[in-house]
Amino acid sequence: MTIEARKIRLIMQLRRAGISDTEVLSALERIPREAFVPKSFLDQAYENKALPIGQGQTLSQPQVVAIMTQGLKVQKRQKVLEIGTGSGYQAAILSRLCRRVYTIERYRELLEVAEKRFIDLRLHNITTRLGDGWKGWPEQAPFDRIIVTAAPPSIPGKLVDQLGEGGLLVLPVGRSSHDQELLRITRHDDGSLSEESLGLVRFVPLVRGLPDDESGGAGTRAPIAAVNGGGR
Ligand code: SAH
């Protein structure tokens, strides 16, 4: 089966699963998922399943990407924050639906590969940052929409704080070894918050802080590489 035929089959599956937003479906059609999966999984790029992306992390199942994106109700002129860049696939989908995507990842290796994909695909409205997503991106707040693609045990207050009036936050909440609840938090114009469930999902945990080898910052990385003979 050709890639094009597999893609059409996947879009049909998503429609049957209740994805009806035509903007979301067309973004899923236009962004090549095969550009975001490891070479050894290329033949599975349009299967409706999660795939490994390195560092023990996963690229979410297309259906979950679709449900979260549809649930986020993104509009053309909006500014969106994503926590957990991973492969960059979710950010790429969002970039077709809004004005600008800000995305944060804690693994430098994943972020660098994702950045290269954005350049190759000419997705110029995505801004990336290496950092701890628990803190959000205060310098760029408020955001119209925030999406978290890893599961915290409870809702991170700083992310709610960075949501603008009328803003929506979509995130999985719960312990990592269990099913988690996909929640949508709304910040109403009067400042009050409400919450609704979009179903059960399974995500990798939203971890606190940066990996040990990143926390020293860029200044300490070069000497370590030199001691090891420069190989990385
Ligand atoms: N949106 C991604 C899915 C990535 S899986 C995609 O489309 O491929 C979740 C990602 O969240 C992983 O890459 C993981 O490293 C990252 N992550 C986990 N905790 C984090 C934190 N505190 N800050 C930033 N990123 C985090």
What does this structure look like?
β3 (79-83), α4 and β4 form a beta-alpha-beta unit. This protein is α/β, with parallel strands linked by helices and 232 residues long. The protein is globular. It has a single domain (3-228), classed as 3-Layer(aba) Sandwich (Rossmann fold), CATH 3.40.50.150. It is built from 7 helices and 9 strands; from the N terminus they run ααββαβαβαββαβββα. It has helices at residues 3-16, 22-30, 62-72, 89-95, 108-120, 157-161, 221-227; strands at 51-54, 57-59, 79-83, 100-105, 126-130, 143-148, 163-173, 180-187, 193-201. Helices cover 28% and strands 25% of the residues. A 7-stranded mixed sheet has the order 5-4-3-6-7-8-9. It has a two-stranded antiparallel ribbon with strand order 1-2. The structure holds S-adenosyl-L-homocysteine. S-adenosyl-L-homocysteine is lined by residues 53, 57-60, 83-84, 86-87, 89-90, 104-107, 110, 132-134, 149-150, 204, 206-207.
